[in-house]
Amino acid sequence: MQIVYLIIVALVLVLVVVNMFKKKDNLFFQIDAALVMITLLLRLLLIK
Amino acid sequence: MKKVLAMLLAAAMLLAMAACGRQDTTSPTGQADPNAATQATLDPNGTAPAFDMQTSETNRIVNIGTVDKSLYAAPMLVTSFGQSTDAATIDTALKKVGATYTYSPQAAAELVPQFKTLIICVGASTKGLGQAGINEKDEVARAEAIMAKAKETGAQIIFVHIGGETRRGALSDQLADLVLPQCSCMIVKEDANWDYKFTKYAEEHKLPLTLIFGQKDTVQVMTDLFGK
Amino acid sequence: MKKIPRHILTASLLCVFVAVMVVVLGISFRSMKEAEPIYPGPGVTGQEMLSKYCPNLKGTAGDTEIYILDSGVPGASMLVLGGTHPNEPSGFISAISLIETVKPVSGILYVIPRANASAFTCNDPQEGSPQRFTIQTAGGERWFRFGSRATNPIDQWPDSEVYVHASSGQTLSGSEIRNLNRAYPGREDGTLTERVAYGITQFIKQHNVTITVDLHEASPEYTTVNAIVAHEDAMDLATLSLWELEDVMKISVEASPKNLHGLTHRELGDYTDTLALLMETANASQGRLHGTVSAEMVVSGQDKFYYRAGQYGALTVDYPETGIGMSERCARHISALNEFCKSYDGPAGTIDLGEMPSYKEIITNGIGAYLASPK
Predict the structure, then answer these.
(1) Which residue of chain C has the CA closest to A26?
(2) Pseudo-torsion of CA C280, C282, C285, C287, nearest 10°?
(3) pLDDT, tens digit (0-9, with 9 covering 90-100), for C192-214
(4) pLDDT at B48
(5) Which residues from chain A sit within 8 angstroms of residue C29, using beta carbons?
(6) Across the 48 residues of chain A, what is the mean pLDDT of every consecutive 10-residue run?
(7) Which CATH number is correct for C36-370, 1.10.150, 3.40.630, 3.90.320, 3.10.20?
(8) Given CB atoms, is A39 within the 8 Å cutoff of chain C?
(9) Per the CB < 8 Å rule, is B215 touching C239?
(10) Residue B52 burial by Cβ neighbours in a 10 Å radius (0-12, 13-18, 19+)
(11) Between 20 and 30 A from B145 (CA), which of A41, B181, B204, C91?
(12) Is C126 on the interface with A (CB under 8 A)?
């Protein structure tokens, strides 16, 4: 079951990264995305 | 527009957190705790006279008046009005004394005719009521029914209030007032007597009153009453 | 040379920032896996791992040490559980004090200081809790972790939406699936938390433990605080002990609710022959009324907002301006444990913990005086 949720986290992470690189002229959006990436990565790496 | 909405949501969250911190005496069962009342709330203007305890660590039991032990014959029932653990304390004390009795904290009125003596431990506990699956209204109704049946049968009643100051909330006092008019002796942990309610009642109605300092003193009191 | 679009540049820089933050935060979060040292004292005669009683725990974050203090004189036994909720530190510290200083004279004392070992490796989110606190001992300062109420979610994830207690069918919020004190009697093949509960239950059954005491804390506004919660089989023992304790502290006895499942005082009493008890002391770092929870506040128990709440009559305990410190809370636990041993007079024989400090001594000297010096 955990592997399913980790895959979901990985997918969301990918989507966040892709959107962050696509978004033009919106620094705050990119900062928000970066903050979200931190928590997703910490969970994906099973740190927090 | 988005910024205004975000601010309103943040404000709502802040208010919700502040609301959690307000003075609230609601117990985990969702009912108001009848024992939230203390001396401060029962006597908000401080009109009760300054309280001097007669008992102390070195003088743990004070007897006012003489108990006629011959009144209290078997069979005996120990029950609780309010479902605090004080009835369990009396159960433990009586076991130590080796007395013969029936312990039934939620005894129904129908049982009363089987007993000549009722030891009624008064003290309301939201937790106890919740655990027993009884609400306040039903507990008062049960108490009233037991007192009515006891009056019919002429059972002798010993009033026990050993939960101390914390068992002087509205419900505890309501239950105590049901028992006092029919009891023939009183046993009270003295810090519950902070407004002299029990000493005044005992004096007015010429009832023997035993004041105790701590719950463990119930062993000596029960030994004096029922010891072999 | 083609100019890099600005948004790509900022995104790339932010990715570097993310990587740095993951490393920095990762080091911080991972540091909580380091266990604080415990120095077994002269009374400790053996040590086991909980996985001996639940092999499915071996190699997991839930496996934890059991300290055995066997007097060598036959008698009753007592199991003390500290750290069921690692954000309630006085139980954990009291358990460590027993391991490091007590030498029983009769019977056997078992101590599991970190009942939920996984919960020590993280904090509860959004609480701003410290990761560690320190206590001064005679030989220097010692550090201890301040953990979470529940099993680390990286050890047991995801939570179900609704937690169905296996043996009773009781339903609770899904987050309670990681609360050890809702998992008893546990399941051998259950979640990590259920396996820990199962191991402890099996330990009690196999060793026929006479008395089991689970040490906890609660917020000063909670209704069950400064209390002993007793299974009905243990009510006599709790009452007899209360009679001795009430001369030195305000304490009450509460009956274990029959309709709330998964807790030590309910399930261990129902599923084993042990006399199941649980103790609560007042902890200002819990609850909803406190200000900043610092490492100092965890130990001092001093919080100006709780003091104000006490003035308003919102608390169920007396809360002085100086707070309710760790020494006082540990004094309650240790005095009560000693009293349970003294008051027990059942068929299992006697259990005597030997020379024990009094409630007043622990408060006067500080709990640090009853912990080993750091090595």
Answers:
(1) C7
(2) 80
(3) 999 999 999 999 999 999 999 99
(4) 55
(5) 42, 47-48
(6) 94 97 91 96 96
(7) 3.40.630
(8) no
(9) yes
(10) exposed
(11) B204
(12) no
Could you give the percent of chain C with pLDDT greater than 90?
95
**pLDDT range class, residue B25, cuts 50, 70, 90:** very low
Torsion (CA) C33, C38, C40, C43 in degrees, nearest 10: -110
Chain A residues touching residue C10 (CB < 8 angstroms): 27, 30
Mean pLDDT of chain C: 96
CATH at B133:
3.40.50
CA-CA distance, B32 to B26, in Å (whole number)? Answer: 5
Domain residues for A13? 2-44
Tell whether B28 lies on the interface with C, counting CB pairs under 8 A: yes
C126: contact with B, CB 8 A cutoff: no
Residues 6 or more apart whose Cβ sits within 8 Å of residue C132: C143, C144, C145, C146, C295
Is B170 inside a domain boundary? yes
Q: Is a pLDDT exceeding 80 seen at residue C1? A: no
Per CB-CB distance under 8 Å, the chain C contacts of B166 are 252
Classify strands C77-81 and C108-112 as parallel, antiparallel or unpaired.
Answer: parallel
Q: What DSSP assignment string belongs to B144-188?
A: HHHHHHHHHHT-EEEEEE-SGGGG-SHHHHHHHHHHGGG-SEEEE
**How long, in residues, is chain B?**
228
CA atoms of C305 and C309, how far apart (whole Å): 6
pLDDT, tens digit, 9 for 90 and up, residues B166-198: 889 899 999 999 999 999 999 999 999 999 999
Alpha-helical segments (H) within C89-225: 89-101, 192-207
- The DSSP code sequence of B87-107 is HHHHHHHHHHHT---EE-TT-
Residue B87 lies in a domain: yes
Token pair 């937790």 is at which residue?
Answer: B127
Looking at the complex, report in whole angstroms how far the Cα of residue A48 sits from the nearest Cα belonging to chain C.
6
ipTM over 0.90? The verdict is yes
Number of structural domains found in chain B? 1
pLDDT tens for each residue of C238-272: 999 999 999 899 999 999 999 899 999 999 999 99
User: How far is C-alpha C102 from the chain's CA centre?
Assistant: 19
Contact A34 C17 (CB under 8 A): yes
CB atoms within 10 A of CB C217: 27
Token pair, residue C194, equals: 């259920």
DSSP one-letter string for C215-276: EEEE-TTSSS-SEEEE-GGGHHHHHHHHHHHTTTS--EEEEPPTT--S-IIIIIHHHSSSEE
Residues B179, B158: contact at Cβ < 8 Å?
no
Distance to chain B for C312, nearest Cα, Å: 7
Total domain count for chain A? 1
The reply to whether B140 falls in a domain is: yes
pLDDT of residue B12: 65
| Three-class DSSP category at C81 | strand
Verify whether the Cβ–Cβ distance C26 to A47 is below 8 Å. Answer: yes
Q: How far apart are the first and last CA of chain C?
A: 62
Measured in angstroms, the CA of C5 and the nearest CA of chain A are apart by 9
Contacts with C240 (C-beta within 8 Å, 6 or more apart), sequence order: B92, C343
Give the domain extent around B66: 60-226
User: Helix C89-101 crosses helix C326-343 at what angle (to 10 degrees)?
Assistant: 60
Judge: A38–C30 Cβ closer than 8 Å, yes or no. no
